[in-house]
Fold these 2 entries.
Entry 1:
Amino acid sequence: MYLRIMEIHPWSIRSTKLEKEHKRLQESLTSLGNGYMGMRGNFEETYTGDSHLGTYIGGVWFPDKTRVGWWKNGYPKYFGKAINALNYSKVAIYVDGQEVDLGKHAPTDFVLELDMHSGVLHRQFTLFGVQFRISKFLSVAQKELALIRWDITATDGKTHKVRIDAVIDADVKNEDANYEEKFWQVLARDVAADRGSIATQTVANPFGVDQFIVNAEQTFAGDFTATGHDSSDWRVTNRFEAEVGATPRTFEKRVIITTSRDYDGLAAVQKAGRDLSANISGQNHADLLAAHEAGWKQRWDIADVVISGNDEAQQGIRFNLFQLFATYYGEDARLNIGPKGFTGEKYGGATYWDTEAYAVPLYLALAEPNVTRNLLKYRHNQLPQAQHNARQQGLAGALYPMVTFTGVECHNEWEITFEEIHRNGAIPYAIYNYTNYTGDDSYLAKEGLEVLVEVSRFWADRVHYSKRHGKYMIHGVTGPNEYENNINNNWYTNTLAAWVLQYTLEALQKHPRPDLNVSDAERGKWQDIIANMYYPEDEEQGIFVQHDGFLDKDIRPVSALSPDDLPLNQKWSWDKILRSPFIKQADVLQGIYFFGDRYTLDEKRRNFDYYEPMTVHESSLSPSIHAILAAELGKEAKAVEMYQRTARLDLDNYNNDTEDGLHITSMTGSWLAIVQGFAQMKTWGGTLSFAPFLPSDWTGYTFHINYRGRLIKIEVDGKNVTLRLLKGDALPLKLYGETLTLKDSHSAPLQKNG
């Protein structure tokens, strides 16, 4: 079921094999990012084998045409895609006139290693009697800086002439481009002996979306001598040479990337690039690297989860945390977390509901509150666009998009654009989550209520009243289980809609807002919907029914399928999938996870036992929710199985699609599975509580959380659970149901799960 091509190491992703057959997978797994920009783990030098070259910049995208022959009223005008930016890491290397190309020539002593602790990608190989040791990082201390260093040594006792052509290449395209379509045009090129730059701009579009300017400025350091430079329509090149013997010679390529997102106009973008390059010119490699490593250390000091006794589990959680923080660390409120981050172009690279449902809990605990607040502000800033989306559907209020860069819906599949409206409950849930976790009502009282009221107006307009049943219903939807389209009364969607209305009324009661013009009649309508919402249930089995008609399917577990049928999305027709009972991801169970304090353990167990056996987990978002609920229900084996799947989804290529890029937003799931699952951390009703257990093949685990101005360390070993208050005032909390006040540290015997 899985493919593992990298070795198991607690702090690194390492291989001593050049995976030509699985090169794209290897590139995805060794991706780098710093929140501002990122790249796949491509080779810098020429590689003529199969490869997916990918370099991406946060917030830079293109609106692509979406209108087709089966156009529907309300469809978005375009869909957005993350576009491959200029290739600024490119070089061509020659040894005694022979070009280094690992696609043609077999190297010896090959090593590829991503050091997750320091955020540096290392590579080593020997070819033509010369050893190359390469290190690359995208600085978290200077966000615009990419630095690549070569240490080159002759290994055969000879002296070799090595030439390096340092290139900035704007002749790039997307893997998913239409008919080799290009999204960039070159505005300016400039090259001299010691530097080179090229400025590009996205081509014009008919949708009124701003064109982006991106400028790359390369400078150099090390032992090589500049021997020439040139430029062409799409490239600038600086050429260097050195005689290489037994003493290592070094070459550094330093690239500064600036964009029109931060500077107004071409001249300002170029000047910023030159100024930033000048600022780092006096700094040596060691200083630049040390500043970068210090930034990663600061992140790991809070975020690291230490697992003892299981290196697979340890590598998995660290890999996921590394890639999450390489994608987003909250510095720029204009940005959000794309499902592929900086590692590929699939899904358009845009914002999904994954952020609010899965990423917010992690960032609340592992970063300062302003990081999550920036994620909430991102949605508040796009409230006018959400109102536009609702009008496109002929509805009141605000409808947040399924896929977006700007707040305007840019997804062009009808069953998603029109029907997967449960995403409009995830945004209010994130406001609740932030307020409940931090204890800070200030966002709720101002920006939060503005969002809640408009979303509530949408739900009140989207429901309809069934005279036959005397209930409010929601027809024509797609729930989280996307293997069901155009169904009626999805239990999760109905539950979430009614909850949003209730939460909004409670918030308005606590924080009156006359300026929002919520009339008594409107409040009365919302209350009536809350009181009379229809929820499909089966009393005989004691379960919440996923949607009307679900129980009429040919109900059977995944175990009844042949292994050759899986994954369904790659083996079956869509029609066959839609008619089957098989579930892509948590649906009913997603609602039970969100509102876990509403339901008894028996209710949770009955629904888990009914739905999990039919779930194929072909969404990367699925395993973590099942791990958390399984842990609460005492199903340790299932919880550990689901943790393994979410922690190593990409490392072991579970869904056979990691070559397209990593599953960034679902990477939060491994942390959620440990902290909300194994440690049973809950914050229901503003009370922090834990009830940890230790997986049988682990000997211990440790993690930190930020909570209401406190920093708490949680340590679990084979005998005890220890809570340590590292910062902040004493805090009342619960451990295994017992109330205590944590002042410095507290230990209790470890209890068995279930």
Entry 2:
Amino acid sequence: MWSSLDQRERIFWVQRVENYPIWVVVGMDLDEVLAGWRQRAGITIGIFIAIVLLGAWGVRHYLKRIRLAQLLQHRLKELDQARTQAQTGEAQLRTLINSIQDLIIVFDQNNQMTYMHALDEGMLLKGKDSLLGKHYNEVMPPGLSKRFDTVFEQVRQHRQAVTLEYQLRVPRGEHFFQAVASPLVHPDGRFSGTLLVARDITEAKQSEAELNIAAAAFQAHLGIIIADAEGKILKANPMFTQITGYSEAEVIGRDAKMFNSNRHDPGFYRRLWRSVKQQGRWEGEVWSQRKSGDIFPEWVVISSIRNADQQLTHYVATVVDISERKAAEQEIHQLAFYDSVTGLANRRLFMDRLGAALKEARRHRSYGALLLIDIDHFKQVNDVFGHSIGDRLLQGVARLLHQQLRESDTLARVGGDEFAILIQSLDADAAKAAQLAELIAHKLMVAIRRTSSLIEHSVSVTASIGITLLDYSTNEQNEYLQQADMALFQAKARGRDTLCFFDPDMQATLLASTRLERDLRQAQALNQWQLYYQPQVEVNGKTTGVEALLRWQHPERGLVSPGDFIPLLESTGLIIEVGAWVLERACYQLASWAQHDRFCHLTMSVNISPLQFHDAEFIPRITAIFERTQAPLDRLKLEVTESLFVDDRDRARDKMLFLKALGVRLSLDDFGTGYSSLAYLAQLPLDQLKIDQSFVRQVLTSSANAAIVESTIALAKSLNLEVIAEGVETQAQQAWLFAHGCHAYQGYLFGRPVTIDALEAELDVS
């Protein structure tokens, strides 16, 4: 305890002295008491600790050796057990795999087959040995390979199994398979390949198809046929036989096209099947053919049947005969919208179509025409010969008028002896539309005159026609009818058997055109045609040839401008006959020059119209002209325009090659103003390019026209073609052309078109 005297820790001994009331307390300093003992105890403890540590190390070493021996013995035992279990497991796995009916294929990271199991190798495309090591793209059809590409990529990306169904033709035939593609992954997470387990589900698919067919047929309270994915008929129910007259045995294996009535164009069926493929069904009215040959309307619903993989397997079509319903509808429609005597549209239907035509004209900004036709003195026919003859006359007029019109035109009977005709989309130009409308009206008047032969009485049948153009203005139907009616009134006031336009100014123009056309048809018979010749010269001014140009010497009008009558020749088709006359006269002149030393070197250029060139008799007609005239064809030059090659280029080229074989030279006139395609230019057997005068006149004032002319000259040279410029009127124009490589010219600078006598006189002087 601690001493209270000196505050040191001491060991105290307390003892009572016998027989005395005294206690003796002895205190010894603790350090002094324990000094020796602590030293001995420290040494002893140190020795003891060393002995203990040494012994523990020995024991630990001994125990460790025992544990290692035991562990080695245990590991050897486990290895032996594992080897035994592995051998047993492998045998069991081999037995298990060999009992699996499914097809098992292992693909590596490159989708090459490394392992394959198939109890029946007939389910493989080839033998196992020939398949191992190959990519599936090397052995599978392209379509299936693309599907496998998608599936295998999904397995690689998402590391999840993917199920798919596919159809494959194997040595045993066409089979369906359901496959599960699973990822093969290393323990460290690396993708090592794909495991494909495929099962033959052909029988299940057939059962599924049968169930689908049965389900569709179960609803069949109507006529029904079932076809495969190729459209071949597989089944037909009794109601279908009752509707069409074909038994099931007569239609099985045949294509559904056997019922086509030819009343629908190919586009109708393309739209039908497009709807079936895109939407899975189509419903609508179809005209079909019975076994007896009768055409009848039916309401058809076509549905497609697909498997779980959305592959088309079958078509199911239900059929309803709607002949009676259509007949009733037709009768109602006929009474509501058609005239009972002629069968034509009545006023109500005509007004509906007129309204639609006006909307179309405004949408496309094109002109149409409305014609009102009145049979002259029809009331007298009814009064004298009776209404039955009058009805026959109306029916005959309706039939003949209908024959002269297009399918898109509307012919209607809008009154007792009055017919209306709606003609849509004539032309975007009002003047041209009016000309076309007038031509149509003349054709109709000629047709009406032929109606006289349809009745058994000597009656002259004529008609008056009023015409108004339908434009894209805001006029309503009634306004156009009023205009046509006013024009009809004018036609009657002028003595009937004529036509009038609502527009007085246009009427005057058309009357002038009509008179010009009438005179034009008489020009050849009255010997009013003349040929003028314009010189073609070289750089030095020497005349190398001429161009034959048609002129019309009218007894009252004088010399008519070609710009007035050439388009009329084209529109009326007279250009074919007149063009042949021009060519023959030019050839005779060329043959005549061949006999004179002064003119035998001259070439003769003759324009050929596209209408003339495309005529079926062009080659026989022109060959006959050459034989009659015996003209030197190597100095004959036929000028054609670019529009000749827009349509039917190959036929035009064949005709040109025929002419080239005869020795005729060919020149492309007005180059640059029309089609101007280098593709046809390089393919056609041309000898010369003729630069149009519209470019030549502006070479000094327009950089664009100068560039076109310069390019044309360079193009002609690159194609080894001659080049000549027409419309040269000044020395400056010639100088510019000469500087840019054009050395042949035609124009007022060198001579105007003149008669043959004047031309030969000029050549003699020069």
